Amino acid sequence: WNQLWRNVCFRLRPGSSGHVGCDLRKRVDLGQLVWCWMFWHRLVFVTMDTAKSVTATFDLPSADLAITKTATPTIALTDQNFTYTLTATNNGPATATTVVISDPLPAGVTFVSANVDCAEASGTVTCTVASLVSGASAAFDIIVTAPSTAGTISNTATVSAASSADSVSGNNSVTLNTSVNSPPPVPGVTAWGMGALALMLG
């Protein structure tokens, strides 16, 4: 059994998987199922095939990162500032490390400022988090200036992590469409209004 431990029970990074084969015909009977408790507290199942070799299958947990995005106000005005809020969440079960949020700003949108963990280069804002444990979230505010022309701007942001593969890729990006309107006109003062004002002021 010590030999089995040395040959099979070794460390793998969370999110990785693999197989290892070793000849234990002198120590394990054909068809016998054995297991061991790994460093990250996951079971490794070891079985023998007809050639009396042993195969260990590893299936370690990975992180499930998700991203959401909002705009405040929900309707922007031309040439006025508004805020994008990006929230990255780790749905688990593994911890995600070196989490990166990337947000290429739409054409016509001008970067103003963002959180200290964010940086802008060539129109793309990148925010980083050292680690997110299962169930944790991190939010970032990006202040921008709306385009000079009214219309709809579409913005897509993504989240990724260097530590492990993502178990659910469908929630790694989000697209938000924001309406940009022209400011309402300032009411003018007519000649009649000026005359009335003059009479009132006497």
Q: What class would the helix/strand composition place it in?
A: mainly beta
Give the number of DSSP strands: 14
Kindly report how far apart the N and C termini lie. 107 Å
**Spans of 5+ residues with little confidence (pLDDT < 50)?**
1-54
Rounded mean pLDDT score: 77
Q: Give the overall silhouette.
A: elongated
Compressed to H and E, one letter per element, the order equals HEEEEEEEEEEEEEEH
Binned, the helix content reads: under 10%
Rg calc: 29 Å
Number of H/I helices: 2
What is the fold's blueprint, element by element?
Layout: H1 2-8, E1 17-22, E2 34-37, E3 43-48, E4 54-59, E5 65-72, E6 75-77, E7 81-90, E8 96-104, E9 110-114, E10 118-121, E11 124-132, E12 137-145, E13 151-161, E14 173-181, H2 191-201
Parallel strand pairs: 6-14
Antiparallel strand pairs: 1-4, 2-3, 3-4, 5-7, 7-12, 8-11, 8-13, 9-12, 10-11, 13-14
